[in-house]
Amino acid sequence: MKLRCAVLDDYQGVALSRADWSRLADRVETRSLREHLGDRDELAAAVGDCEILVVMRERTPVDAALLDRLPRLRLIVTSGMRNASVDVAAARARGIAVCGTASGSEPPTELTWALILGLARHVHTESRALREGGPWQSTLGLDLAGRTLGLVGLGKIGGRVARIGLAFGMDVVAWSPNLTDERAAAHGVRRAESLPALLGAADVVSLHMVLSDRTRGLLGEAELRAMRPGAYLVNTSRAGLVDGAALLRALREGWIAGAGLDVYETEPLPVGDPLRTLPNVLALPHLGYVTEANYARYFGEAVEDIEAFLAGAPVRELG
């Protein structure tokens, strides 16, 4: 009998067309699920017959409780080589292999700048007014040249964002707990002495940190109040880096000018969530890594991972 494979959270319905799944057709029966299944009972019923799961980033948590309900499961493939929502230790304890794929840093870099530019030039407000017969010009854009871009994190994505900021003529300053003057200088930017110093100096603050116990809630009420009233916060990294309740107050009470968001504590974002309707929020549905080239990487290497597993030699296993 063929093994069964399910691709979870295939929102665009493209997973099976972005790679050559026919290479597995004689051994694996593959299907994709377009709707997010947030209810554990519903999810377990939908994929309980599967030996293989392909999960997209951190859209669906795969924890020990779910694994206990999937006794047939033998392989989990995740897009990217890091997925905090997959309990790798619990999977290994149950004899389940966990493998990953490559993931490009260019797509989230580009989306970060889409949000920065959208906020600076009030693109959503002006576009909506144009479509709806509203006023012809009602806002003044923020000039980026000569302004200060503050980067919280200067890794692969943060470094790329920095280079673009410099190209716009911005003064770029960065901070992270382990950032040195030498590494900052190698990117052509200045190192802030502290997080509050960066927040108080920047006109745009962009977050590029990995979410961990140490970084969760990195920006709380005190940090948001330290930002300039005319500054913007952009988060394409992880929602947990910012205290959600404090961010709502900051946006409602005008501690900051606005926010560009692509990540949320609950995804998909509930219909009634105020982040959907606040006028100073430019919100996108977690599109940072959703591009043609990245999806080709994800699903092409997912097929490779499955082939290697079937051959008894798994590749790109997560530690």
Output mean pLDDT.
97
Q: Please state the overall shape, judged from the principal axes of the Cα atoms.
A: globular
Strand neighbour order, sheet with most strands: 8-7-6-9-10-11-12
Low-confidence stretches: none
Biggest sheet overview: 7 strands, parallel
Structural class: alpha/beta
Distance between the termini: 31 Å
How does this model look, in words?
The protein has 11 helices and 12 strands. The chain is an alpha/beta fold. The longest helix has 19 residues, at 292-310. The chain is globular and about 65 Å long. The two termini are 31 Å apart. The model has no long low-confidence stretch (mean pLDDT 97).
Nutshell version of this structure?
The chain is α/β, with parallel strands linked by helices and 319 residues long. The protein is 32% helix and 15% strand.
Layout of secondary structure:
Layout (H helix, E strand, L loop, with lengths): L2 E5 L20 E5 L7 H8 L4 E4 L8 H4 L7 E4 L9 H6 L3 E3 L6 H15 L2 H9 L16 E5 L3 H12 L3 E5 L5 H6 L3 E2 L3 H7 L2 E4 L13 H6 L5 E4 L8 H10 L4 E4 L19 E3 L8 H19 L9
Helix pairs in contact: 4-6
